[in-house]
Each structure stands twice: as C-alpha cells, then as structure tokens.
Structures
1.
Amino acid sequence: MIATFPHLGTMAIFCKGIAVACGFEYLVPPESTRRTLELGCRNSGDGLCLPYRMILGNFIEALERGADTIVMLGSGPPCRLGLYDLVMKTTLADLGYRYRWLTIPGGWRFEDLRRLEREGRRLRHEVRFRQLARLPYALKVGWQKMVACENIERAAQRIRPRELTRGATEDAFRRALALVDAAEDLPDIAKAAEAALALMERVPVDTELRPLRVAIVGELYTVMDHRINCGVERILGELGVEVSRGNWFSVHISRNTGLNRALRERREEILQASYQYLGYNVGAECNVSVGETILAAREGLDGVVHILPFSCMPESVASAILVRVSRDYDIPVLTLHLDENTSPVRLTTQLEAFTDTLLWRRRK
Ligand code: SF4
C-alpha cells in the first residue's frame, strides 16, 4: 500500500508524520503547479469548484508516480467536498487508474463511520497489526506537527509586516517548517518546534510599527492553501498588513470533535453574529465568513479579505451578504473570486489598492 493525500497548506507535513510513525509507505504528491491545475480542469466538468480541480490534479500526479491508496477528507452537504469521492472515483477509473480510496470522516455521522469501516476492510490484508497498534501514537505525532506548523504560521503573520528586510520572514518561515518536517518522534518534534519559533523570532523587526490589521475569511481550502490563493497572506504581510484568520486545522478538528470548549464558544459567537443576516446555518464556511466579518468590525480591525472559489455555493451566498455587512458595520471588505485563470499580478494589484484604501481611512 502506498498512500497519498492532497496538498492543503501544511497538511503534507503532518500526514507524512503520521505515515512514518505508523510505518506506512506514502507518496506526497508533487507541489501543486500549473500542470496540476490543468490536469484537474481537463478532467472535470465546468461547474466544479477550484479545490476539486486542484485536488484531482494532485491525485492524478500522485497515481502517475506509483501511489495506490488515496486518503481524502470528508464533509457534509451543501459543500461539494462530501461528494468529491463519488465523482473523482469515476473520473480516475475512466482514466485507467487502479487505486483504493479511504475517506476520513469530517464528523461523527453514522453513515460516514460505516463508509470508513467499509473502505478500511479492503485494506486489511495490507495493514499489519503492529502498524495499527502504533496509530494512536502516530496521530499524536501528526497533531503535534500540525500545532507546530500553525504556531510558525501565526508567528509569520505577526512578524512579516514588521520585518526590516523584505523576504526575511518568508525565508525563516520555510526553514522553520523544514525543521518540523524533519523531526520524527515526539521529543524531536518538541525540540524542532522550539527551534523553529526561535528562528522566526530572530528576524529583525521594527518594534514601533503599528501595522494595519486585516482578517482573512472565506472558503477553507482557498484561505488555507498558499498555492491556490497565490500567497495572499504573504503579499498582504509584505505590504505591511498583519493578517489573522480563523481557518486552522486544529480549530476545525477541535470544533468537529467538540473537544475544545473555548473554540466551541467562539464558533457559537460567530454563528450568533451571522444570524442577523442568515436565518440558519447555510453550511461550509458561509455563516462563519459573515460572522467573522462582523466580529472583525466589532474588534476594531481595519478590513476584511474574503476569498472564495468561483462557483462555490456557500461562499457566493456569503459574498452577497458581506456587501450589506460592510455597509452596516462600516468595514471595508475585499472579495477575491479565485479560478484557474487567476493571475498573481492581478491579485497583488487588488491587494495593493485595498491596502492604500485602508491606510487612507486610518489617516482620515
Ligand atoms: S466550500 Fe465551496 S469550494 Fe469548498 S469544497 Fe465546498 S463547494 Fe467546493
């Protein structure tokens, strides 16, 4: 069995960590490039969302290199993520690939757990008892790596707008992630996480600067994956903006498993705020995008960047409502629709113009 998984932010680092700790063979898909997206677009229908296309491209490239088991995240309606497996399986079979599919449920729904059991049964002859017994430890390794990566990302969000040399944070950020990636067991990860944060803190900064503060809200995949959003966080940071976002793996996992009380309460606060405009929970991140924008205005942030893939139903609803939220709460909202033709130059120009507007408002 050679397992593969899609790229999403720093996911490859902790998925690899889990596979290594369990002793499973794995194959990280090549970095998402123009070719990845072209493969995804060529083999999918017109109405399918950008994350679908990129993920399909990741899988095709991984299967081309010898992977034979696809591990994918699941979700519920109305987001199409929960239906990706049905369509992708048919497409990949039509393209002549032979593989197994394993969906990790996005929650505790009975039918999702049944599906996991059914799909897992097909792999039972290839998984040794020793590997299964190591799974709890491996999950802990994956969790610690994920938290370490997120702490590095948060540090980068804070340091980037204050850096004295353009690009110094990005350089430290890459090296910090590599340290966590290379760590193998729990004590090693703890040391690597500490060294990585120390590396970030060594970036020379202007301690007096009071940067603009902007929240990034929107569809999970496009907010969290720098490959698909052309590095929105980095561009904003290098324009002197401190960004924050609520989309983190640890937040979604803790929220879906109901394990973290503070996160449950914060989500409730976000949803309550959104109910002024939406009578019910529309699904995916729709209400969260609306609620987080309202809270950003209440908490005194300078603006909000809303990112969504073209044809995403939940976020299209949010984007229509955010026009009213922006007016009612007097907070500038920049909406970025992403598709396969999005140009990094166009995106940078939009972000520069937005930042200029925010600076002008602050001076006023
Ligand atoms: S939230 Fe939208 S873009 Fe994301 S997977 Fe669901 S439908 Fe596609």
Note: The longest helix spans residues 135-159.
2.
Amino acid sequence: MAYRVEIDQDECMSSGRCVADYPAAFAFDDDELATVQPTVGNLTDQQILRAARNCPSRAINVYDSNGNLLE
Ligand code: SF4
C-alpha cells in the first residue's frame, strides 16, 4: 500500500464496517471508535480505497504519496 490512511474519529459512527471487512487494518478503541492498525500496510491500494468508500460516515481519509486526499 502506497497510501496514507487516517480516521477522523469525530466522524466515525461506530458502524463497524471497516473493522468487519478488514480486521487486520482497523480496530475499535475503548470508545468503540475505529482506529488504523500498523498492519494497514498489508492492504492493497484497492482494498484501502474500498474501505474508505464503504464507510457510511466517510470517516476514512486516504492520501497519496504527495499528500493529496483521494477519498
Ligand atoms: S466504517 Fe467508518 S463509521 Fe464504520 S467503524 Fe469504520 S470508520 Fe467508523
């Protein structure tokens, strides 16, 4: 994965979609808000873009290597 991934926890509605679909990359913290795991790098670019697009609250932000927001 060449992208950088961040979660805006102010936007996360705890749907669990990212955690369910990609448990190696996302996990809930103690407040049941999604966090990015260090192993997110194991996902392909396509998988990370899919995770961002599937987030119902658009809380997953994906940046390319130039810092441009992709999703
Ligand atoms: S899919 Fe989006 S709203 Fe659902 S847990 Fe993940 S970051 Fe939060």
Note: The CA atoms of residues 8 and 68 lie 16 Å apart.
